Amino acid sequence: MPEQPIPTPTSQPPAAKPASPAGGASAGKGEKKWLLWGLIGFTVILLITAVVLFLQLRKPAEEPAPRVRPTPTPAIPPVQEVTGAGVCETTFTVTGPTCTGVTIDPTGTSVSAGDDRELTAEVTGGSGTYTHEWTITSDGADEGDLSSTTANPTTWTAPGSLDESQSWTITDTITDAVGEDITTSCSVILNFTGLVACFDTCDTDLDCEEGLSCTDVAGTFRCVDANCPEDVDCSCADASPSPSPSVSPSPGVSPSPTPPGITQASPSPRVAQPELPEAGFSAPLVIGVAGGILLVILGLLF
């Protein structure tokens, strides 16, 4: 008879324990506790809000700042034209410029040919910037030259060649910024007295008469004749040169002829001199001698 399998016992899961009634009661108490605290907090918030609203409602309202009213513009009286009696009158005087004089640099009104003079008009009064107009009048043919007719100062240059006496009147007419007819003027007179005669003092050759030159004679420049600067009348009467004696030529020395039968000796050849040694000492020789002496001393010691 076949063998029947023996059934093995199987393990059964443990039976679930029944819930304890005490645990459910504690969970219910915790939920009620949190609900109570929530109600308390909400109530506190409502109370604080009510207090704040109450205080704001009881606070007195701020009064508005007073509004500044603009000041009305004063009324301008109408312009009225009044003629006849009762009209106010006033007078005033406008003073124009005044020229007090013309300064000269270098000073002195006496000039020579080619001299330069800087002219400056001294002006006071008036208003604003002055306008200058320089003019020249002369009793001679050449009026000279102005560096500018509208500048102040200006420079006047005398003619480069003058033979006879001559004078120049240089005038500056000044107008201030107001213009119109308010002007003033001032002038200066320069003159040339003529060429310097013989043996008179001078400054340059242009001061002297024709044929004379301005030369230093004993420390003073005078117009003299260059051939006789010591002659006071420039006649050179005592300055005629005396004829110098002629020098006769000296006779030349001719070589004497050599007599017949005598032959002239030819010059002997020049013997070369031996070259002498240079004075002094030789550096290699000195070093060699010193080294030998040192070796001798070392041999004696050791």
Note the run of SSEs as H and E.
HEEEEEEEEEH
CATH architecture classification name of the domain at 97-192? Sandwich
Instruction: For the record, give the distance between the C-alpha atoms at the N and C termini, rounded to a whole number.
Output: 139 Å
**What's the CATH superfamily of the domain at 97-192, by name?**
Immunoglobulins
Q: Helical segment tally?
A: 2
- Low confidence ranges: none
Q: CATH topology of the domain at 97-192, anyone?
A: Immunoglobulin-like
Radius of gyration: 68 Å
Overview of the molecule:
The chain has 302 residues and is of the alpha+beta class. Among the domains are: 96 residues, Immunoglobulins (Immunoglobulin-like, Sandwich), CATH 2.60.40.10; 37 residues, no CATH class. It contains 2 helices and 9 strands. It has a 4-stranded antiparallel β-sheet, with no helix packed on it. The protein has a 3-stranded antiparallel β-sheet with strand order 3-6-7, with no helix packed on it. Strands 8-9 form a two-stranded antiparallel ribbon.
